[in-house]
């Protein structure tokens, strides 16, 4: 492996692997059926330090690096992709944004509650008519003395219902385009904030995805994250980290799909032998394992760059693009290896196939990742 993991990183990986397979995996299929949000599991994850991994110890976090975080997130995704997406938005986007852009008071007030999983974090950028193009959002935040009054509807918000806190972006100055967008921390229960429609999704069913409606929602000015006009930069910075998280989620789920396919092909007899003996299927397994390894290395590369304080936006988009497309190819092939049983609820591959589908869409579609990557490459001064 190009990336040599430290003893501490390996220890975190093994601790989370054990927890994930003992605690998270056992009820994953049931949660997929009932759509029940695993509040108790998140509390346990908080106790283990998984809900504020990169938050400094001073604010209740673990102060780990991003490499440890992606190892942990992959292990959770291995058992339950719904749990992993909540963990990813909470850690990569919400905790990281407050830690990076928050005031000392905001960090002291919110980070310990987030790291303990007393509250789950959500991030509200997308709107019904502003998905890939968040600058065209129409939610507004009007300054009124010592407060901002927020009006607008946000859509497809992970943990919109079960989150205790949401970072929301809104326009404070329409004329300034992306520089007129600001970010705010809004606690659940704030008058004027209501949870709207909850989506009935094909996958990630235990993670709620909702509309959030802001109607004259009055938020104290001290809850503004960063300066006025910093909201778009905060969102883009958060999404850079979030995209590494989605690559980790993809690697974890793809590994689980491969393990399920290996188990099945070693059990299933056809033509008088285990189907794992057939070269055609062995080569499929070899290709799948190679694709997963390639995605894992891109994930480590982006995480390592972030840890070293280098610019990593392009590498985060590459990791997200490749890993999310990889997992969709992989779950399809692994389902094929299960034959007819693959489309039944008797095998976990059916759930994995559904869970993976959104990975190429959320936190920036594959097409958006290609825009980010090509923009970086074409503006490189070394290019002719
Ligand atoms: N970090 C910091 N700043 C950044 C940045 C980054 N990665 N990317 C861009 N910016 C800054 C630029 O420097 C620029 O600022 P200045 O004018 O001061 O130089 C400003 O932002 C505007 O940049 P662009 O002109 O490149 O912006 P754009 O409007 O063309 O859009 C985009 C760029 C990459 C397409 C962006 O709009 C984008 O990422 N869109 C996708 C949005 C997205 O991922 N949505 C997912 C929703 S969240 C979600 O899914 C979470 C969930 O719950 C699971």
Bound molecule kinds, no repeats: acetoacetyl-coenzyme A
What is the percentage of strand-forming residues? 15-25%
Distance between the termini: 34 Å
Per DSSP E runs of 2 or more residues, the count of β-strands stands at 10
Listing every helix as H and every strand as E from the N terminus to the C terminus, the arrangement reads HHHHHHEEEEEEEEHEEHHHH
- Kindly state the mean pLDDT as a whole number? 97
Low-confidence stretches: none
Describe this structure in words.
With 384 residues, this protein is of the alpha+beta class. It is 50% helix and 15% strand. β9 and β10 form a beta hairpin. It starts with 6 loop residues before the first helix and ends in a 6-residue tail after the last helix. The model has no long low-confidence stretch (mean pLDDT 97). Bound molecules: acetoacetyl-coenzyme A.
């Amino acid at each position: 492996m190009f990336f040599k993991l430290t003893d501490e990183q390996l220890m975190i990986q093994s601790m989370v692997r054990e927890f994930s397979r003992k605690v998270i995996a056992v009820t994953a299929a049931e949660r997929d059926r009932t759509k029940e949000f695993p509040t108790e599991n998140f509390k346990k994850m908080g106790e283990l330090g998984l809900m504020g991994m990169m938050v400094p110890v001073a604010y209740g976090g673990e102060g780990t690096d991003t490499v440890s975080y992606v190892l942990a997130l992959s292990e959770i995704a291995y058992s339950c992709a719904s749990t992993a997406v909540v963990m990813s938005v909470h850690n990569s986007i919400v905790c990281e944004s407050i830690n990076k852009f928050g005031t000392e008071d905001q960090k002291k007030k919110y980070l310990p509650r987030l790291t303990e999983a007393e509250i789950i974090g959500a991030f509200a950028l997308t709107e019904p008519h502003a998905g890939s193009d968040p600058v065209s959002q129409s939610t507004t935040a009007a300054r009124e003395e010592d407060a901002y009054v927020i009006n607008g509807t946000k859509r497809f918000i992970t943990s919109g219902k079960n989150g205790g806190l949401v970072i929301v972006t809104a326009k404070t100055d329409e004329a300034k385009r992306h520089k007129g967008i600001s970010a705010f921390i809004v606690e659940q229960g704030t008058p004027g904030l209501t949870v709207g429609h909850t989506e009935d999704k094909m996958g990630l069913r235990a993670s709620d995805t909702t509309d959030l409606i802001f109607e004259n929602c009055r938020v104290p000015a001290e809850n503004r994250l960063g300066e006025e006009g910093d909201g778009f930069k905060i969102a883009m910075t958060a999404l850079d980290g979030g995209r590494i998280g989605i690559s980790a989620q993809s690697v974890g789920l793809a590994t689980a799909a491969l393990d399920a396919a290996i188990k099945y092909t070693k059990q299933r007899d056809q033509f008088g032998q285990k189907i794992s003996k057939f070269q055609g299927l062995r080569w499929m397994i070899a290709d799948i394992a190679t694709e997963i390894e390639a995605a894992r290395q891109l994930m480590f590369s982006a995480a390592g760059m972030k840890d070293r304080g280098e610019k990593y936006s392009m590498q985060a988009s590459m990791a997200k693009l490749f890993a999310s497309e990889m997992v969709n190819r992989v779950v399809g092939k692994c389902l094929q290896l299960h034959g007819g049983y693959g489309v039944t609820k008797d095998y976990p591959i059916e759930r994995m196939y559904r869970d993976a589908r959104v990975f190429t869409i959320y936190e920036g579609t594959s097409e958006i990742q290609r825009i980010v990557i090509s923009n970086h490459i074409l503006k490189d001064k070394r290019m002719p």
